[in-house]
Write a structure and sequence with these properties.
This protein has a single domain, classed as P-loop containing nucleotide triphosphate hydrolases (Rossmann fold, 3-Layer(aba) Sandwich). It contains six helices and ten strands. It is an alpha/beta fold. The strands form two sheets. It has a six-stranded mixed sheet, sandwiched between helices. The protein has a four-stranded antiparallel sheet with strand order 2-1-4-5, with helices on one face. The site of adenosine-5'-triphosphate has 12 residues, from strand 1, strand 2 and helix 1. One of its GO terms (cellular component) is membrane protein complex.
Length: 234
């Protein structure tokens, strides 16, 4: 299979006062289409930096980043806006929902700016929220709010789903349910899903595990028999 996500010698430095920090240093890896990929590593290892560059929210200093054959690292601002809007879906640790809009309005907000959106109500039903569409975020549990944010990402019909610590704010069982939903989404829609986590136990559920350390890939593992999340305990 061809590489769907490709990083080739990607370096990113941040300048803080006099100090230069190498957030990523010569990072190379690839991910195939439709894979459930988990990125793990200690705090400060460069995980978020990698996801933000792939999502078109941050640029790299050198190297090449490709998604589905397209060179992301060479896009200008306008092309990047278009790319973020149409090609990538994001899920964040703290949901980032608009508080004065209902669940369905939050999803419509995203689908309205897209070329080929899915119906907001249908996607909310897919994530198990058909009874909660008219609730405001404050009237939803953390797990339900994360479901809304997954629905919002999916409604755009993106090529890839990028999730940065999606269970970081959730309790054990709710977090497991969200991971299950992400894995089911990957299997049922064929979309490529990347999940960042601190939790090594979660790596068992992935097709591919990329370990980061000090701004570099320390290890990459292909898992031919991923375990359903309900069978993993931690
Ligand atoms: N905007 C920024 N300005 C300056 N330094 C930054 C910035 N973003 C990240 N860094 C630095 O780059 C390095 C990698 O950060 P990154 O956020 O990618 O780590 P991470 O692996 O996601 O960590 P965590 O698990 O804590 O979220 C860290 O040393 C961090 O301090
Ligand atoms: Mg991070």
């Amino acid at each position: 299979m061809k590489d769907y996500v490709l990083f080739e010698k990607v370096t990113k430095h941040y300048q803080v006062g006099e100090q230069t920090i190498a957030a990523t240093d010569n990072v190379s890896f690839s991910i195939e289409e439709g894979e459930f990929c988990v990125i793990v590593g200690p705090s400060g290892a460069g995980k978020t930096t990698v996801l933000n560059m792939l999502g078109g929210m941050d640029s790299c200093d050198s190297g090449t980043i490709r998604l589905d054959g397209r060179d992301i690292s060479g896009l200008n601002e306008k092309q990047l806006t278009d790319y973020r809007r149409h090609d990538v879906g994001f899920v964040f640790q703290f949901y980032n929902l608009v508080q004065n809009l209902t669940a369905v309005e939050n999803v419509e907000l995203a689908s309205e700016i897209c070329r080929n959106p899915q119906d907001a109500k249908e996607v909310l039903a897919q994530v198990g929220l058909s009874e909660r569409m008219l609730n405001f975020p404050a009237q939803l549990s953390g797990g339900e709010q994360q479901r809304v944010s997954i629905a919002r990402a999916l409604a755009k019909n993106p090529k890839i789903l990028l999730c940065d610590e999606p269970t970081g704010a959730l309790d054990y069982n709710t977090g497991k349910n969200i991971l299950q939903l992400l894995q089911d989404t990957c299997r049922q829609t064929g979309k490529t899903v990347i999940v960042i986590t601190h939790n090594l136990a979660i790596t068992q559920m992935a097709d591919r595990v990329i370990h980061f350390k000090n701004g570099a890939v320390s290890k990459m593992i292909i898992n031919s028999t991923p375990v359903p999340v309900e069978r993993i305990e931690w």
